[in-house]
Amino acid sequence: MIVRNSLQCIIDRMNEPRRFIQVIAGPRQVGKSTMISQFIKQTTIPVTSVNADAIAHDNMEWIAEQWKKARTAISLYNESEHILIIDEIQKIDNWSEVVKREWDNDTFAGCNLKVILSGSSRLMLKDGLTESLAGRFELIRVTHWSFSEMEKAFGMTINQYIYYGGFPGSASLISNERRWRSYIQSSIVDPAIDKDVLMTKRILKSALLRQTFDLSCAYSGELLSYNKIAGQLQDAGNTTTIAGYVNTLGEANLVGGLQKYSIDTARKYMSVPKFQVYNNALMTIQNGRGYEKELLDPQRWGRWVESAIGAHIICHADELGYKVYYWRDHADEVDFIISTRFATMAIEVKSGRRTTNKGIRVFEKLFHPKQTMIVGNGGFSVEEFLRLDMDKIIGLIE
Is the pTM of this model over 0.85? Predict the structure, then answer.
């Protein structure tokens, strides 16, 4: 069983004095519940672990009851500390208000009850945290699976990872692509759209949101203006609405729109977006013609390679605190610009569809990045780059 880096973060924070609620946040099907089970097996601190999945959504007092049970255990067994874990907490209405009340009561009473919250909807968790629990929590971000993890757990090759992406639950199905596609659609995409997004955000046109998602994923790695998107959609919608939907899909760790790098902040937000999925599986179910067929087409395969590099970069942006952009000036372009508070890095992907490009040299003259990197022909191999932890890459410019 794979042990993800986030598990050690949970262990370390639970061994510290009680300070904050720990919130495990991340997209669907990345192993958050598995990681909680691994933690429970390893920790020596007594644990009360419950799941709100089957609880009625309006049963807010259920949370208070679990809290009381954990407090009773501390008193009954004379424990110096105790951990309460509530999974799928976002399914309870107004959960954050109840958590705030109970946490503050413990703080006032000096009760050493530590708390871990987790849920399958990143958007629902985010809304509750920002509304009620400001200053009371820390995030433990869980990302999509990397190539190294998929290789170690399932023996996935680099080309399989580029095409099928990093959803662990789907790895055993890749020999039957039709079945694999059905699983990704019904177990990941549909719940992410129908539950995480539509139940959290005020979406006036759900069909338009779905079409925006499909088109954005299909064009991963490509520049496409919101006007052109609007022209390809069946349901009418203005560019502002579509841009808002893309932003929401990015918050759900599905697909985002990268802005053009510029010193002028206003120009960044006025630029044509470059779409980027967070997991290449989402591009494949929209645009893939079959693994063997795409692998044998260098021009099209280059799109998958560039998108896989972009997914690896963008997945860790929130966790490590950097921004991701692209840059283009007429024929000159750079695929990815990583920007931290201190410096920038330019990353150019030389794949089957583009092996020569002077854009990175032009960018260097204009913006003087602290570091540049070539991935592909003449630089780091794609496999080598996808094995690198992003914190090590960021370390080159910090």
Answer: yes
